[in-house]
Model the fold of this input.
Amino acid sequence: MTDTKPLSIAVVGPGAIGGTVAAWLSRSSLVGDLTLCARSPLDRLSVETPDGGRIEATPRVLTSPDQVEGPVDWVLVATKAYDVEAAAAWLKPLMGPHSRLAVLQNGVEHVERFSPFVPADRILPVIVDLPAEREGPGLIRHRRHGTLTLPTGEMGEAFAALFNEEPLRPILTEDFLTAAWTKLALNCAGAVCALTGQPSGVVASPGMAELMHGMAAECVAVGRAVGADLGDDLPDWVVERTRASPADSVNSLLGDRFAGRPMEWDARNAVIARIGARHGVPAPLNAMAATLLSGMGWSLPAA
Done:
């Protein structure tokens, strides 16, 4: 007999990604209890969907790990990759002996970031392709259909079952390594937008497509060195996908720059140079991008 007991879910980091995922989970018949773990109080989630509709959800909102009443079935971490320490503070009260952790972050080091806090066999890495923008606390615009790519296996299948709405489709893959490096090739090239302060339409400016292509090509070379099966045409795909995006589309890196928040330069660019150095594969374009982006957070001390 199948156990149909509703599941309890906690989403740590209800920003553009976490908030959108939480909104769709609020419609899942398998989810009985939904909690948001946030820095600041939220009255509700209001997500504009790709078809022009809107999801209004009022999950429980906690602002401190001290408010957690007990473990949940699934913890979804959707914070920025550099915010692991803050996210980890929620894990001790939320994770019980049977809880599972899904990491919805950029980069290729999902499991490595959280294995100091949770056994690796209870961590599910998730590649998120979800064009969503936060327009205010709890207010999100989900621009077009998205996907959540997961490794095959019982844990991946259990997570995929939570999503039964077409605008957010789970994909199971037997080659998660290749999928992760494919997404990284797209993400690393997005640094051009953050560096120029321009949305996706900047790809039409002279030299920008070539720069994006070069950064993605470095990612392909490093990814191949660690075993990812990446084709020679991947950098072309990255450029064409950027060209096909709405010209005013703002990726999360640029969105963080506009908002004055820290940027994920390490998970999106420095990681390529760092892993490349271990394997003797140079990645100077990504190294320079990471250096420049890291410098944007520096400022002179007050007089």
Remarks:
- DSSP finds eleven helices and twelve strands in the chain.
